[in-house]
Write a structure and sequence with these properties.
Order of helices and strands: EEEEE
Largest sheet: 3 strands, antiparallel
Strand order of the largest sheet: 3-4-5
Number of helices: 0
Helix content: under 10%
Strand content: over 45%
Shape: elongated
Radius of gyration: 25 Å
Distance between the termini: 34 Å
Structural class: mainly beta
Amino acid sequence: MGNGESYVFGQNVSQGAAPSGVPNKSITWEKTKITNFGIDFGFLKDFDVTFDVFKRNTEGILITAPLPGVFRWIKCSVSEFGKCEE
């Protein structure tokens, strides 16, 4: 919702709010899958070894995408961008 919108009510100008963009009904919640595996061991007296594997996959990352052509006067809509793997 955008603030700072004005409208006429009777003979008075009043402040209000109005939608600032076009809703995107096809977007979903961002999904992240995390895998973490680790091994710690030690031997002798002062020798320790740590092995750790961490992987994170994220899908459905949201961005604000510009609308094409004649719709440029409407603010950008939110859409899914893609995936990320760390």
